[in-house]
Write a structure and sequence with these properties.
alpha+beta, about 40% helix, about 325 residues, 14 helices
Length: about 325
């Protein structure tokens, strides 16, 4: 996340009005979504995807909603307005503006918590040159109080006491944004998570299931697929079929190699020997260092003694230093 240190990014975050000529106001909007219970099912043959990524890509959904809102505003004021939409893809800090607008507060897990729905909300902002009435917005009271459930439940202990996240250990960051080889010390903590992590939201007592509300616009009826991904199906994906399967979801944010890396870590954590041959096949045929390195680790996790002779033979011909390091972990 080094881009956050870019001088241009810092300047625009300090001077958000520079993002739109004549900017006067920011409108915060959003939608809530149903949390999945897949993380707690304990099934060893399935990988889990974070709830928000099971629905149509929120970038497209929220931007369409924003365009509709802008059109409605223009019909009310009788003229076009200058506007710019921000949905998790620019220098504007949507979460901070949502807090300043009084929609909620920043919880211990650093997520925006919006009563009565909780943190399972997707948010965006519309910057406009329209002068909006000053309603003397009151900042929302912090209702986390002394609760530490999210801190205690975090699989990698990445939630800090000061309500920040150590992204280097956050499973959401590791599985979605981080492009490299995941540190060996963190792999076991990732469990069967393939994309993102809902654990701090699942344990939060302020999050409620959406079937309690009648106004939900994103519900289980909108799911593209469920939260469980069969390892056999995941291993059968090619770069082409990966793009086809996930192109309408946020999962496409991760590359094919990154997603397969996550799958291989989950398989290693499953310890299921039925996938040993698939892992050997990837080691022998894949052209991706990222995939082959994690395939070697996963194979060793399933049964290091059973695969020791295989690793010893492979080491004789292996040229990739990263793969050799993973193999050496088991044979030395």
């Amino acid at each position: 996340m080094a881009y956050l240190q870019n001088s241009s990014v810092i300047r625009k975050r300090q001077q958000p009005a520079s993002l739109l000529a004549g900017a006067r106001s920011v409108i915060v909007f959003g939608q809530h979504y149903q949390l999945s219970n897949s993380e707690s099912n304990g099934c060893r043959e399935y990988g889990v995807i974070a709830s928000y990524a099971l629905y149509p890509d929120y970038h497209h959904v929220l931007k369409q909603k924003a365009r509709e809102l802008i059109a409605h505003i223009e019909s009310q004021v009788g003229h076009q307005i200058g506007s710019k939409i921000f949905v998790d893809s620019s220098q504007l800090m949507e979460k901070d503006y949502a807090y300043l607008a009084g929609t909620g507060w920043i919880g211990r897990n650093s997520l925006l918590i919006v009563p009565p729905y909780g943190s399972n909300c997707m948010i965006g902002c519309i910057m406009t040159d329209l002068e909006l009435a000053d309603d003397q917005v009151k900042l929302h009271q912090d209702l986390c109080l002394d609760c530490r459930k999210c801190i205690d439940a975090c699989p990698t202990h990445c939630i800090q006491e000061n309500r920040t996240i150590d992204a280097r250990k956050c499973i959401a960051y590791l599985t979605i944004e981080y492009k490299g080889i995941i540190p060996r010390s963190l792999r076991v903590m990732m469990g069967n998570r393939l994309f993102g992590c809902d654990q701090c939201q699942i344990v939060c007592p302020l999050n409620k299931q959406l079937d309690e509300f009648n106004d939900s616009s994103i519900s289980r009826d909108d799911l593209i697929f469920n939260g469980e991904n069969d390892f056999s199906d995941a291993l059968s994906l090619t770069r082409e079929t990966y793009d086809q399967k996930f192109k309408m979801t946020p999962i496409i944010r991760a590359s094919y190699d990154m997603f397969m890396r996550n799958v291989l870590i989950a398989i290693g954590n499953s310890r299921l020997s039925q996938f040993a041959d698939d892992l050997k096949d990837l080691l022998e045929k894949s052209d991706s260092t990222l995939i082959r390195s994690h395939a070697a680790w996963a194979l060793g996790m399933i049964d290091p003694m059973e695969t020791r002779s295989y690793f010893q033979n492979l080491m004789k011909s292996e040229a990739d230093e990263n793969v050799k390091q993973e193999i050496a972990w088991y044979i030395h």
